[in-house]
Design goal:
globular, mainly alpha, single chain, 5 helices, about 85% helix
Length: about 130
């Protein structure tokens, strides 16, 4: 797991930089910077509006005595997606939009749920807990 995180935080920025430099060659510096700024602004707005809707849904579920599991997963997706969207880069922007836009987020949630079910069935997903006294 540690190796994957190290690769993520070292290789990903290099790949993002290489992609931005390649885009810069084709459309120019000003347009490349404009794309980065625009995706940050639009992404921030989208994450904020989606987050407000999810908070409303969480409050509604809790007021009706239900545990807001779907809404909490949505909230986590939007939070992570928003962080990706304000991070400069085209790949992170793509992933961020996938997490923030409801329809693509739903597809991603279905994939993650099926993966989690498979991990639980095969025993590769284990939850450890300790008794607090």
């Amino acid at each position: 797991m540690l190796l994957k995180l190290i690769l993520l935080f070292t290789v990903m920025p290099i790949v993002e930089l290489m992609l931005l430099l390649e885009v810069n060659k084709h459309i120019g510096f000003n347009y490349t910077i404009l794309i980065v700024i625009a995706t940050g602004i639009v992404g921030g707005y989208l994450a904020r509006s989606q987050g407000r809707g999810i908070l409303f849904d969480i409050k509604l579920e809790m007021s009706q005595g239900r545990i807001p599991t779907e809404e909490l997963i949505d909230g986590l997706c939007v939070l992570v997606g928003g962080a990706f969207l304000i991070t400069p880069g085209l790949i992170t922007d793509f992933v961020g939009f996938m997490l923030v836009i409801p329809h693509t987020r739903m597809l991603l949630k279905l994939y993650v749920k099926s993966k989690m079910k498979h991990m639980i069935k095969t025993g590769s997903f284990v939850v450890h807990h300790r008794d607090l006294k």
